[in-house]
Amino acid sequence: MGLFIAVPVLLVWGVTFVNTKALLADFSSLEILFLRFLVAWLALWLLWPTPLKLRGGWKEELLFLGAGLSGATVYQLLENLAIHFTNAGNVCILVSICPVFTALLSRWLLRERVLSPFFAIGFILAAAGVVLVSLNGIRVFRFHPVGDLLALASGLSWGFYSVLVSLVNRRRYPPVPAIRRAFFWALVSMLPLIALAAAFPNLARAVSCTVDFSPSANAARFASPLNWLNLSFLGLFASGLCFVGWNAACDRLGTVRASVGIYLLPAITLLFARLFLGETVTPAGALGATVTVVGVILSGHRR
User: Fold this and answer.
1) Where does the chain have alpha helices with state H?
2) Which residues contact 230 (CB under 8 A, 6 or more apart)?
3) Rounded distance, CA 293 to CA 277, Å?
4) Average pLDDT for residues 65-94, to the nearest whole number?
5) 170 exposure class (CB count in 10 Å sphere: 0-12, 13-18, 19+)
6) What is the number of structural domains in the chain?
7) What integer is the mean pLDDT of 159-167?
8) Domain range for residue 6?
9) Cα–Cα distance between 125 and 110 in angstroms, integer?
10) Residue 303's pLDDT is what?
11) Are 165 and 255 spatial neighbours (Cβ–Cβ below 8 Å)?
């Protein structure tokens, strides 16, 4: 059941770059981030209109606050910023290291044990496959310190989110209102960023985090059915249902085993880039996708 839930989630997350790329023609990265989680938050209210009652007071509220910050605001924002300071291949490689952070943090904070030697071997193979996929068509790998560190910090943020999701799962809260509460805190944390973007437009423009309050501009871009379709997909499916599904997958598979599946994202992205954008797949990219899939399958074996 855990695999049955996780695979569709990863497939949807792998195609979101197509929707985001289309929306970037009319919206900034920050606007897309806020709008997609606003749509997700409203959709989860319609799906489960009952408020979540916390059993542990403000300490448990901090769990949801941390999950919203790490899994939505910080992770997505750092990843978007990283792309402006380094190339997409570097970002893909470094962000995909997040299963390593998840494993280390789970070992440290959750006391989870290493599953098996197969898990470790599969872990390494999947990571090697990610590197090959991310270098698809790139002959020279160059380091860009600022962007690379931002991408690395983004992966670390997702590791913290995975641990916080596990702590929420241990309290046996229903997944829909639990994720909805995390999204609420994510939206709240984005409001200061929106205020900063409005106060310093030149700086915001440099990193694609502008916010346009012009009535004429908003009337034009929100009149586009294609924009609404892409925002709805990102909000309803990629954010709302997929985050709920990922919560359930982590609960059934365990945080570390589920996170290894994230290694599949570059391979899925490569496939959809070929199908929808006509991008070239090199032999290194194809080999990397195959090695990644083998590594993920191998990591699931216990003996």
Assistant:
1) 2-23, 29-47, 58-68, 75-85, 88-95, 98-105, 117-134, 145-170, 175-199, 201-206, 215-221, 225-232, 242-253, 255-260, 264-276, 283-299
2) 19, 20, 22, 23
3) 22
4) 79
5) exposed
6) 1
7) 87
8) 2-299
9) 25
10) 55
11) yes
Pick the range with the lowest mean pLDDT from 68-82, 143-157, 263-277, 283-297. Answer: 263-277
Mean pLDDT of the chain: 80
Tokens of 111: 């006391």
Q: How far apart are CA 248 and CA 260, in angstroms?
A: 15
One-letter amino acid identity for 286?
A
CA distance 114 to 33: 35
Radius of gyration from C-alpha coordinates of the chain: 19
87-92-94-95 Cα dihedral, nearest 10 degrees? 130
Query: Quick one: CA torsion of 121, 127, 128, 129, rounded to 10 degrees?
Result: 110
The answer to whether 169 and 177 are in contact (CB under 8 A) is no
Who contacts 23 (Cβ-Cβ below 8 Å, separation ≥6)?
32, 227, 230, 231, 234
Q: What value does the mean pLDDT take over residues 251-255? A: 79
Cα four-point dihedral sign 163, 154, 6, 259 = negative
DSSP for 163-219, written as a single string: HHHHHHHHTT--HHHHHHHHHHHHHHHHHHHHHHHHH-HHHHHHTT------HHHHH
pLDDT above 90 for 177: yes
Stretch 175-198: mean pLDDT: 94
**Contact between residue 163 and residue 106 where contact means Cβ atoms under 8 Å apart:** yes
End-to-end CA distance of the chain: 20
